[in-house]
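hey so i finally got around to running both of the ones u sent me last week. sorry it took forever, my laptop kept dying halfway thru and i had to restart like 3 times lol. anyway pasting them below in the order u listed, first the sequence line then the structure token line for each. didnt double check formatting much so if smth looks off just lmk and ill redo it

first one:
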Amino acid sequence: MVQLNFLIIALAALIPLAIGFIWYMPQVFGNAWMKASNMNEEQMKGANMLLIFGLTYILGFMASMALSAMVIHQFAIGSILAETAGIKDPSSEVGMWLTDFMNKYGNNFRTFKHGVFHGVIAGIFFVTPVIAVNAMFERKGFKYIAINAGFWMVCLALMGGVICQFN
């Protein structure tokens, strides 16, 4: 069965921090984001950045864990067979079948490109609707939605690529 590589998950969790550093720079989308979110320099100064960065990493780790199930299709076979008798015994009938299956198909769709594809799909069909619903109730405009959803699409694409290729 496919095993999670927690080092890769932990490294992928750094991607939102790295992309955020670039994405929200004033020269990129920072000024537009501040205007769209009704923020100003004074509000930005009082933040506990250690707490924000720490929580961003923890939440990025959680997103990486969830994303791994989306980008690595071989996890599905394990979840389907999880309660099957003999699944953990490689010499059982199901254990031998699973070993044979993984030997034949265990590396299918395990590319950076495939992970990027699923990361973008997650960004479009999951993250964007969540951000858009919150933005509508907060009375934020399209630019706010586009900046934040775009950020997460790029992050999830890169995270998905790394997880799929190296996990």
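and the second one:
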Amino acid sequence: MIKILFIIGSGSFIGGISRFMLSRYIQNSISSSFPYGTFAVNIIGCFLAGLILGIAGRGNLISPEWRMFLTIGFCGGFTTFSTFATENTALIKDGNIMLFAIYAGLTVFIGILSVYAGNIIIKTV
């Protein structure tokens, strides 16, 4: 059990740092109150999760430990649902209801679509 926790924790550590760096880079590149950085990492993370799950579903191409490291660890640390919820709350409090609706709707819809797309891509190659 300790080994599994270390595997997941290591992936989460790397994913969290990657999220921070990429999200900050994107958000600093765009002057907008819309949280493009968080939106981008959530969509990318969902797509990566779909790719990884697709690879894992092909048989012995990826070990259970690597699957946990990449999906639960890296993608879990990389995607940011708590940040997503906090940013949506801030948009509502600031009266940006339209931006809230667009951000929440697109993230959920495109996130699910990205997981599906990543999985389909792996199944077709």
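quick thing i noticed on the 2nd:
Residues 2-124 form one domain.
anyway thats it, ttyl
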